[in-house]
Recover the amino acids of this structure.
């Protein structure tokens, strides 16, 4: 089912001359891997940054350390900064960032395992529009949380470009 959705993303991006870049943390490249399962994905899929550690978020995406210190790596603010940085680095039309706690450890009271933040940015002719999402997936395993996160991102990309 997700492959059909990605094929539709490819078609919509081709029709609209859009391309996509990703910044993944808790999904560890799963979303990128799903995109590249489609032949010809380079027509719409530009690049991906896997910024799993705080250090990589700071170094690769230039997330201000104060943002991570103040709000945490798993936060709306960090996700938004990841997306904004992607636009600067890639010049693509669409950016997607994902950061969360896939478990089985690492959760806190405010961000339990299964907490994931997403930001999707769309560059229009006039400006950039950001949509942010906060999901709390069931804690029934790391793989489940990663898969649900990737599929949620795919659904939100489709809604954004449709």
């Amino acid at each position: 089912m997700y492959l059909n959705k990605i094929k539709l993303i490819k078609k919509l991006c081709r029709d609209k001359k859009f391309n996509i870049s990703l910044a993944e943390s808790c999904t560890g490249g799963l979303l990128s891997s799903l995109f590249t399962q489609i032949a010809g994905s380079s027509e719409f899929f530009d690049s991906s940054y896997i910024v799993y550690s705080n250090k990589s978020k700071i170094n690769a995406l230039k997330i201000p350390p104060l943002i991570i210190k103040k709000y945490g790596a798993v936060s709306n603010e960090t996700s938004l900064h990841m997306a904004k940085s992607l636009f600067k680095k890639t010049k693509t039309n669409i950016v997607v960032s994902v950061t969360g706690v896939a478990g089985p450890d690492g959760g806190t009271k405010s961000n339990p395992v299964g907490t994931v933040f997403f930001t999707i940015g769309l560059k229009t002719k006039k400006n950039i529009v950001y949509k942010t999402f906060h999901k709390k997936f069931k804690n029934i395993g790391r793989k489940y949380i990663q898969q649900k996160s990737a599929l949620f991102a795919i659904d939100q990309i489709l809604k954004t470009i449709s």
The longest strand covers residues 115-123. The longest helix spans residues 142-161.
